[in-house]
């Protein structure tokens, strides 16, 4: 059973989807630690209710690496973590950090494209299809190998909040699914592309 750390900044609904999947026996792993860069992130309460250790760490990836190593973390999941990881943290866990992004990468991603900013940009551009992407984290922002993407029709929506809600439903499906695949050893990277075996 793999040891998982989850990093959050907000409400923690993506975190909750992983907690629920673990409790349902759908993931061959256990969340050992939830780290937030925001003291008042509601996701911390979700973790505590599930009996998971929590920590608040702001702008100190060296400390986070130390905490992860101490707990022998196998997989790091960014579940709505609204900060850019340092190279120190990324290099400490090569192809062991995954992120959920609320668009179909390579569209609407990169510097400044996070949270509601993504959905507002999607709305302003007038695209008809959006979705969510789970990818490995690399030194390039949102540039690591893509693991899974699911699209949804948003042509009937005219508010960024409604787009966010629809995309969030996809996030709650695919993030725990990918975590489960990783914990089962079913994800491989060949020539920069992910294969599920």
Folded structure, characterized:
By secondary structure, the protein is α/β, with parallel strands linked by helices. The protein has one domain (2-196): Formyl transferase, N-terminal domain (Rossmann fold), CATH 3.40.50. The chain is 35% helix and 26% strand. The chain contains 6 helices and 9 strands, in the order E-H-E-H-E-H-E-H-E-H-E-E-H-E-E. It has helices spanning 13-23, 42-49, 61-70, 87-92, 116-125, 160-183, and strands at 2-8, 29-36, 53-56, 75-78, 97-101, 129-136, 146-153, 187-190, 193-196. The strands form 2 sheets. A 7-stranded mixed β-sheet has the order 3-2-1-4-5-6-7, covered by helices on one side. A two-stranded antiparallel sheet has the order 8-9. Helix 1 (13-23) links the parallel strand 1 (2-8) and strand 2. Helix 1 (13-23) runs parallel beside helix 6 (160-183) and helix 5 crosses helix 6 (160-183). It is globular. The mean pLDDT is 97.
Search tags:
alpha/beta; Rossmann fold; 35% helix
Number of domains: 1
Please identify the structural class as seen in this structure.
Answer: alpha/beta
Radius of gyration: 16 Å
Average pLDDT, all residues: 97
CATH fold descriptor: Rossmann fold
Enzyme class: transferase
GO molecular function: phosphoribosylglycinamide formyltransferase activity
EC number: 2.1.2.2
Family: Belongs to the GART family.
